[in-house]
Amino acid sequence: MKTLLYYTVIAVSLVSCIRIDTGKNIEKKMSYRGVIREIYKDTRNHMATTFAIQTKTEDLEIDANVWPRSWEFAKVGDSVIKLADTLILTIKKNDTIEKQFKYDF
Q1: What is the percentage of the chain residues whose pLDDT exceeds 70?
Q2: Strand (E) or helix (H) holding 10
């Protein structure tokens, strides 16, 4: 019984690591530029703080929790820039003040 529990814990740990790494790789590949049109708590995603972003071509919903403390700085109307091959999100205010946030999940 202890052996089964041991292997179960190991399996769950490995799956969690793979899932986190996959999310990080997906985020690293993403690229978008847009304007925050709404900041809200997503009831479908464990009340995660979410940015609704409008780009030139689409509307995105981005989990702000992976960009620690970004939601404290961001306001509706701010510009958001995420370049491909980076794990940095830049938020720019209308008066050209900007701040960068590192991906952390």
Answers
A1: 79
A2: helix 2-29
